[in-house]
Specification:
6 helices, alpha/beta, 33% helix, 211 residues
Length: 211
């Protein structure tokens, strides 16, 4: 069993929670994590950059002049890449394939990423999180009390407007619900913070899947 410390918003320890590594696949899978990250970044690209090749440009395929006897350098058709207005030699094209992971692979990659965070003691549970009104200073003070300085992913059990508005301007901080977590964002930041209801929701979902 792995222990996860529980703190309040002021950084005072309020206990700990236990989680079974078997619920997260039992071990970290680096190859699957890499596949998930490559797929995620691949899907973030717009893939709209493209240029015309020789086949896409207008113009005749006729040879401009005979090969020998003119005194000029030999020359082919007007659409050749070496002439102004011709096509590009290695034109940019839309890739022929994309990286696709199944739903099961994405889930297991996320579980592996969270398990890696758990084993390196980079997961923290915060109890009693409440922001009566949006205030970035309150969110930053909470992170400071928890000793978080190099960014984090903050996971909630459900969307909360005040929490989101309080944390969105904190540098290197991502505000997500548990259902929105993905392998790339979890590993991108140093720390992973759960609210207590969010961690319980996450653990219950894994128990239900194993059962």
């Amino acid at each position: 069993m792995l222990s996860v410390p529980v703190f309040d918003m002021k950084g005072k320890k309020a206990g700990q929670l236990e989680v079974d590594p078997a619920l997260l696949g039992g071990r970290v899978r680096p190859i699957l994590i890499k596949q998930a990250i490559v797929a995620y970044l691949n899907h973030q690209r717009q893939w709209s950059a493209r240029t015309k090749s020789k086949a896409d440009t207008e113009g005749s395929t006729r040879k401009l002049y005979r090969q020998k006897g003119t005194g000029n350098a030999r020359m082919g058709q007007v659409r050749t890449p070496s002439r102004r207005g011709g096509g590009r030699a290695f034109a940019k094209r839309i890739p022929g394939r994309s990286v696709v992971l199944t739903k099961k692979m994405r889930r297991l990659a996320l579980d592996s990423a969270i398990l890696a965070k758990l084993t390196s003691n980079d997961v923290v549970v915060v109890d009693g999180v409440r922001f009566p009104k949006p205030k970035t200073q309150s969110f930053a003070s909470m992170l400071s009390a928890l000793g978080i300085e190099k960014g984090c992913v903050f996971a909630m059990h459900e969307p909360d407007r005040n929490t989101y508005l309080s944390g969105r301007n904190v540098p290197a901080t991502e505000i997500r619900t548990v259902d929105e977590l993905n392998c790339y964002e979890v590993l991108r930041r140093k720390k992973l913070l759960f609210t207590k209801p969010a961690f319980e929701k996450f653990a219950d979902a894994r128990r239900g899947r194993v059962a």
